Amino acid sequence: MSGFEAAFAGAIATVGVSAVVLARGWPGPTGRHRAPRPATPALPAVEAMDKVAARCEVENRVTIHARTHVARQFICMDCLNPSTDPLTYDTREGVQ
Q1: How far is the C-alpha of 76 from the C-alpha of 64, rounded, in Å?
Q2: What separation in angstroms does the CA of 88 have from each of 69, 77, 84, 91, 94?
Q3: pTM for the model
């Protein structure tokens, strides 16, 4: 075997070994290959809004409304306009 054939065979072996090492993944700091992280358990769904039926002042009919937990806004789910919240609305407002 000539020197050229030996160098060529060594280069092919180096490329092959490098391809296998890169395909399998480089070992981490612990010496083990990096495995995919296990999936975290799904948390229970949390509803961001309380939904109730109420009268929409814009559409002039009863529709589903949502009260957000963060800003406590009362919004019509059909037209997306804010409405008067029946929990904070004082019906005696204007009566003396």
Answers
A1: 6
A2: 15, 19, 8, 9, 15
A3: 0.43
